[in-house]
Each structure stands twice: as structure tokens, then as C-alpha cells.
Amino acid sequence: MPRKSTSLSLDADLIARAKNAGVNLSRAAEAGIEQDVRRAEAELWKDENKAAFEAYDKFVEEHGILLSKHRMF
């Protein structure tokens, strides 16, 4: 992916500690942002599909799990 320069405000002590430890600030920030974005996108997906989950749960309560008679456990 192409990279884009940006400006971030970070805790000065944290920056110093990261540099002292040899941490690449850009890569570390990118990894943290990626993690938070994935988490937020997953929550959004759950919210967008909440009605489907509830409908399936209601179906299972009323009719049981599909193909349960074929289970070997």
C-alpha cells in the first residue's frame, strides 16, 4: 500500500522510550491504528447484522438447530 505522511501528537516520554528501545514509531502507530480499526469495523458489522443474529436465535429457539439429527456428537 502507498504510504502517506501525517502528523500525530504523542506522549513525549513514550516517544523517547520507543526510540530508546529501537521501536519504529511509524510502524508501531500503524499497527495500533490497524488493530483499532479492525475492532471498530467488527463492532460496526455486528451492529449492522444484529437483526439477522436475533432472527436466527429466534429460529433456533422455535425449531432447534438445523441438521441436528445428523450430528455425531
What this model shows, in words?
The protein is mainly alpha-helical and 73 residues long. It contains three helices and no strands. The mean pLDDT is 94.
Overall mean pLDDT stands at 94
Low-confidence stretches: none
Give the biggest beta sheet: none
Q: Outline, from the CA principal axes?
A: elongated
The secondary-structure class comes to mainly alpha
Helix content: 55-70%
Beta-strand content bin:
under 5%
- Element-level helix/strand string: HHH
Rg from alpha-carbon coordinates: 23 Å
Q: How many β-strands, per DSSP?
A: 0
Number of helices: 3
List the helices and strands and how they pair.
Blueprint: H1 12-21, H2 25-48, H3 50-63
Features of the shown structure:
mainly alpha; 73 residues
Short summary of the structure?
The chain is 66% helix and 0% strand. It is built from three helices and no strands.
